Amino acid sequence: MTETTLVFYTHPQSRGRIVRWMLEEVGVPYETVLLEYGTSMKALEYRQINPMGKVPAIRHGNVVVTEAAAICAYLADTFPKAGLAPAVTSPLRGPYYRWLFFTAGPLEAATSNRALGFVVPPGRERMMGYGSYPEVLDTLEGAAKQAAPFLLGDKFSAADVYVGSHLAFGMQFGTIDKRPAFLSYCETLDARPARQKARQIDDRLATDAP
Q: What's the burial of 205, exposed, middle or buried (CB within 10 Å: 0-12/13-18/19+)?
């Protein structure tokens, strides 16, 4: 492994699909290491990469990054030629961070709780970082309605990769309502060649997996 080697640790039926799409948007060479739930993903060797024993993760030379949102942000900043993040001095940097972390925080928590059947008791919303499921979806719906056609206007970014992936997953598995604004936004993202290529790769790996 050289100091510039980019290694991607994943499973084709995981949040690694988000990072696969991001890698294809970045367009740089990378190596894929496939891990299995309960075995190689929990093995000591991989826990030295991610002590949580979960995917996705990347190793870029001696740098290890876990958590899909962090990986997307890292790749966007590390490979600026891809144009997947606004400049640090750009006013778009604010909404870029906002939607990345809104999705990693409130949306992820709200949809996970919904999938498990947990409902925040009335009057206890302040204890939850996301407030309530309807508030989270209404907020994100507002952003999707204003997308023109992307979250940052006409500039596609890593935020679209991350937000769009969660919306697509959520609508597929029933944890996010299929609102017209979400469907329209995801349809625009699905047309991207990198999105289609990433999906084809992971679909094929999922079919071939034991």
A: middle
Q: Please give the model's pTM, rounded to 2 decimal places.
A: 0.94
* pLDDT tens for each residue of 125-140: 888 888 889 999 999 9
Cα–Cα distance, 79 to 85 (Å, whole number): 9
DSSP secondary structure string for all residues of 59-118: EETTEEEESHHHHHHHHHHH-GGG--S--TTSTTHHHHHHHHHHIIIIIHHHHHHHHTT-
- Please enumerate in sequence order all residues whose Cβ is within 8 A of that of 134, keeping only pairs 6 or more positions apart, or say none: none
- 6-83 CATH, one of 3.40.930.10, 3.40.50.720, 3.40.30.10, 3.40.50.300: 3.40.30.10
